[in-house]
Amino acid sequence: MKILHIESGRFLYGGGMQVLYLMEGLARRGVDNLFACPRGAHIAPPARAHARVVEMPMHGDPDFGMVWRLRRLIQHEKPDLVHVHSRRGADLWGGLAAALSGTPCVLSRRVDNPESRAVAAVKYPLYDRVITISEGIREVLRDAGVPRARLACVRSAIAPRPWLRDYDKAGFRAALGLAPNTPVIGMVAQLIERKGHRYLLAALHEVLPRHPGLQVLIFGRGPLEDALRVQIAEQGLAGNVRLMGFADNLPEVLGCLDVVVHPADMEGLGVSLLQASTAAVPILASRVGGIPEAVRDGETGLLVPPGDVGSLAGALNRLLDDPLLRARMGDNGRALMLREFSVDAMCEGNLAIYRDVLSAALPDALADPLM
């Protein structure tokens, strides 16, 4: 079986990591992976361990030329199936290129942004299956009129080994110039509006009087960086909040946090939440999208209504007040990740969809499922 994967994102965020996990698992199962991505994309070097990589211009939604570049690649390589992994232009142009080439195609949908029925009626018929990473996203697409038979859910996965380690929490704090018992929370997300950084900053005004030594570490990059820096200064939070940038050593530091906070307005599932739970860190997040599938309220963390600053502050105070509660939730979260979010389950789920889509076109080849 030969699969062309298309990922148009430039940075190696959560969705890109899922593509790497999938290609690695498929390669171990004998699948021939071909991978198309933008020139200079951060995902390209690690992808070469599991796929033949083709870098090409990809400029997002306005880049209609992507259709013809991808169509030429499909016609030259003749994959059995095309798997489009991201929205940024590729979810339309990649599907159209596959349709023009007469090649079966599936799409992974990783975000829960609502779409109009008119847009959905144009886009999703291009795909034999739309694979959602959570039940929450599947329901969003159902509401947009996508037929249930065209939808399948395969949850995102976490490769646990990097997060199963003994964390030196005192050493981490010392490196930041902090005392060993300093409470430290973190937010791991792109610096974009829908991730809800503004709610966390607002909630701190109700948390800091009770926990004046609290340190908040914001990991990630994005277009809101300058605005967040200004907000932190204007709100008098510079002594408590640090912008840490993109952390390429996240597995080494995530488990040193006391709580991971994710007050998003919308979220497909949240790979950083899977990582935090695997590192045994309790989570405080919004009850939106697929988050309740990744964070079990009262068991592995606490969920609050989106945009509700008062509830966010109250839940954060509760977690900071109770180290035993945090420890219990952290242990429960790690157990949940190991039980329900394995890479093997994600790879087998996608592979089963490939086989189902190809079964009508390739009945003989599927007698050997790895072709």
UniProtKB/TrEMBL annotation:
Q: What keywords appear on the UniProt entry?
A: Glycosyltransferase, Transferase
Q: Out of the domains of life, which is the source? A: Bacteria
Report the residue ranges that make up the Glycosyl transferase family domain in this protein.
Answer: 172-334
- InterPro entries for the chain: Glyco_trans_1, Glyco_trans_4-like_N
Q: Which CDD domains match?
A: GT4_PimA-like (cd03801)
- The record lists the membrane-crossing segments as none
Task: Give the EC number.
Answer: 2.4.-.-
Asked if Transferase is a keyword of the record, the answer is yes
- Could you say which enzyme class this protein belongs to? transferase
Q: Does the keyword Cell membrane apply?
A: no
GO molecular function terms noted in the UniProt entry: glycosyltransferase activity
Q: Where is the Glycosyltransferase subfamily 4-like N-terminal domain?
A: 14-154
Q: What protein name applies here?
A: Glycosyltransferase
Organism of provenance: Azoarcus sp. (strain BH72)
